[in-house]
Amino acid sequence: MSKTNKKVDVDYTNGPVDASGRKSNLSMFMVMLGFTFFSASMWVGQNMANGLDFKGFILAILLGGLILGAYTGALGWIGAESGLSLDMLARRSFGEKGSYLPSALISFTQIGWFGVGLAMFAIPIANEILHLDVTRDFMPWQGYLLVLIAGILMTASAYFGIKSLTIISYIAVPAVAILGTIAMIMAVQRGDSTLIEQFAKGTKDLGVIAGAGLVVGSFVSGGTATPNFTRFCKSSKVGLIITVIAFFLGNSLMFFFGAVSSIYAGGNDIFEVMLNLNLFYIAIFVLGLNIWTTNDNALYTSGLGLSNIFGISKKTMVLLGGLIGTLAAVWLYWNFCDWLNYLNCTLPPVGIILICSYFTHRKAYLDDSVPKRQVNWAAVIGVILGALVANFVKWGIPSINGMAVAAACYFIGLALQKKA
User: Residue 336, Cα to own-chain centre: how many angstroms?
Assistant: First the structure.
């Protein structure tokens, strides 16, 4: 009898991750920690250092981290217990066709941030290392070449899925954390005042609640994709614990890198601190790895989302997303960051509806007996209204406002369905 080789989808695009696909706790911790290593979070740290004193800075990180931990921790639990990706969870909570909305939103934003990340790598190197004059209106060919090389490498690693993401994380996480921390300590030691004294400078016009809002906003959109990774954890408890610890440590480290960069070196991130300390090659190495870990996760997430919409393999969609992000990287960097921040506010309502749907129908999810429908309009309307509130209501923390409205819409729809 002849044997046929059956291709195995190691990324479990359309179904739950089985026992054989689960990864070690250390591997998942590295992947989740590397997810948070992103230069945009350092910018948030810079803004917080300018607007808060040291005590307020710490309190904002703790409060924001608590909110993020509750949100991403719940999603981490769900992903690990169900074994399902964000998009497969959305098929059950938003409906088969309704899931296209959250898949499109997260794919669009993650491809956008992938492109922005490429430019975040190329432009500082072109400016600081190659001494080229990069402006909003002009990018020398060397800069585009750097974008192209980075885009090819990062797309290639995302193409090979969770295994490749794990390898990159094992390399990048220790390197960025250790070298970045050393550079930060060196910067403080070379300063003429203590950390607390340096934090006392600046406008100090930011409250702790507003600071916590910046902390939440810096990662709540990316954190919505948590199930895409924790579905490979060995248990729901592991998914929860790893998510909360890794995200808190990683985000806090990025905020400190950005804050210290700002108050001691006047720059945007630890890259500029390293340049000022004459650590040129280490600076390039850390900047590249820092962006690579998050960009890989972003592109992987977009591939899963586009696969759900178009029914084409995740690998093909990763290549398409990588191509679009690479070609548009410089334009995205200069023209689209503000729009991406608006779009970020659409993702927390998606996440909270996934959470509400799962915990109100947990047994059905685990038995794979969730009733199939084309569109759950309560969920769709919840995302739309939640996004509008998050973007345009100025009181409180935008992402929390959006989640509250989305959850209310979902439960109203659930109540109406039971009465029908």
Answer: 17
